[in-house]
Amino acid sequence: MTSTTDQAAPVWSVTEHLEDILATVRPLEPIELQLLDAQGCVLVDDVTVPLSLPPFDNSSMDGYAVRTADVEGASEEFPAVLDVIGDVAAGSAGGLTVGAGQAARIMTGAPLPPGAEAVVPVEWTDGGLGAGPAGSMTPHSASPEGATGQVRVHRPAAARAHVRAQGSDVRAGERALAAGTVLGPPQIALLAAIGRATVRVRPRPRVVVMSTGSELTQPGEGLGTGQIYDSNSFALTAAARDAGAIAYRVGAVDDDAETLRSTIEDQLIRADLLVTTGGVSVGAYDVVKEALQGAGDWGEGAGEGAGIEFRKLAMQPGKPQGFGTIGPEHTPLLALPGNPVSSYVSFELFVRPAIRALMGLKDVSRPSIRAALECEEPLSSPKGKRQFLRGAHDAEAGVVRPVGGSGSHLIAALAQADALIVIPEDTAEVAPGTELEVVLLG
């Protein structure tokens, strides 16, 4: 990809620009990771269950393992009286067999002993105390004799009552997880439950975010004349993490091309993707364009095809954009405009899909739905540009209403939005009630 500053360069559509990005970005190479290190990563291969879950019939209650014939017709007035032959605790290796007229005190998760056909909850018995219904079992350490003696059962139990059958969760040989699954806590739990210590995944991309502008200062510091706080690098670092990346924020870089080049070179070693904000328009101090001209020559072995192209897109906000690859590893770089709303909208449309593509996901963009526009008066939109307005979506009512104005600096309105309202390029005015595409941000 080659750089250009041609003022007569064509105007690109949002779709064309995204297609070029996704055609360049390739999923990261798979690696084997420990389970907790794999959280948030994308599974590369199907995972097959090596053993059934649960691996054996076990009790779902604290109670007594019994034969159903021995408790048939049992009631509080005429309880079934059974001899208790011992305890079966969770993790027990067994050793007990329940015969006619017998019961084994059993704990939740313990294997069902041979001979037993059902489990009677302790609340259906006298707990071996010879009184009314028991509320709980006497702890074994406090009363070892509770594992022997007799128990009175006040209710009958059907076959397999309160028994978790072997393989009732998942059976050996079945697919536990499909390739392409993002590993969250439930998936990590399943992998651990079937005995997997490691898993093959595509790692979370490392994304470096930096903002540019001599006017920027860090939150917590005092503001000088003409200065503003750097919000873009915080917003986009948080957005990158939300998209699934490991994100690194670099403090704002002054409007100096050599300083920016040096900073980018330093960051290449830890980046699968670089994101800059600011300095991509046509001003005299737009240093990102200045610094990245000839970026394909950076680093030994940068090779043919590297470089950054700066474009004008038919969109509002976010008209100026830059994209390409940089350095010896051809690391993707997206250069976004500096206005806060422009940079955030650009991130959602272009950077988030790039991150998801690096992860190896098929669905890379935010979900979108159709909703009716709720507003007092018609909305205007620049014809020939796809406009993205901040919106608040009411799923129950099926409507979306604009939040704030269309200015690309209105960050307070952005904080109240949970959607982007999309007005097509060929539309100059939208009447209230018109059904539009809505990109959901939540």
List keywords for this structure.
442 residues, alpha/beta, seven-stranded mixed sheet, five-stranded mixed sheet, disordered N terminus
Which blocks of ≥5 consecutive residues have pLDDT under 50?
Answer: 1-6, 299-303
Largest beta sheet: strand ordering: 1-19-21-22-18-14-17
Shape call:
elongated
Beta percentage is: 25-35%
Largest sheet: 7 strands, mixed
Percentage of helical residues? Answer: 10-25%
For the secondary structure, the number of strands is 29
What is Rg?
Answer: 32 Å
**What's the number of helices?**
8
Give the overall pLDDT as a whole number. Answer: 88
Written overview of the protein:
By secondary structure, this protein is α/β, with parallel strands linked by helices. Helices cover 18% and strands 29% of the residues. The protein is built from 8 helices and 29 strands. It has a 7-stranded mixed sheet, sandwiched between helices. A 5-stranded mixed sheet has the order 9-6-8-7-10. A 5-stranded mixed beta barrel has the order 23-26-25-27-29. α1 (14-24) packs parallel to α7. It is elongated. It starts with 10 loop residues before the first strand and ends with a strand. The model is unreliable at 1-6 and 299-303 (pLDDT under 50).
Task: Present the secondary structure layout.
Layout: E1 11-12, H1 14-24, E2 31-34, E3 42-43, E4 47-48, E5 58-59, E6 63-66, H2 68-71, E7 80-88, E8 102-106, E9 118-121, E10 150-153, E11 163-164, E12 175-177, H3 185-193, E13 198-202, E14 206-212, E15 216-217, E16 228-229, H4 232-243, E17 246-253, H5 257-267, E18 273-277, H6 287-292, E19 307-313, E20 315-316, E21 320-326, E22 331-336, H7 340-359, E23 368-373, E24 379-380, E25 386-394, E26 399-402, H8 411-415, E27 419-423, E28 429-430, E29 435-440
Parallel strand pairs: 1-19, 7-8, 14-17, 14-18, 15-16, 18-22, 20-25, 23-26
Antiparallel strand pairs: 2-13, 3-13, 4-12, 5-11, 6-8, 6-9, 7-10, 19-21, 21-22, 23-29, 24-28, 25-26, 25-27, 27-29
